[in-house]
Fold this sequence. Notes:
This protein is an alpha+beta fold.
Amino acid sequence: MAKSAITGQRKLKGNNVSHSNIKTKRWQNVNVQSRRVWVPELGRFLSLKLTTRDIRSIDKLGYVAYAKKNGVAIPGLS
């Protein structure tokens, strides 16, 4: 299942709405990518499944700060 390793985002259920306003169910999938993220505090790479929004935020804030912001425990960091 497509799920972000940090934020836990999953697919959402929504509606297709036709011109005549008939609603049918559809899924809105999250854009999950497998990425290796360099963590300088650990001195190594972590392989994670991240959404594109997570990747942009990690580029801006750094992995440790973003993980703490989302309440994720970081293995090997005390």
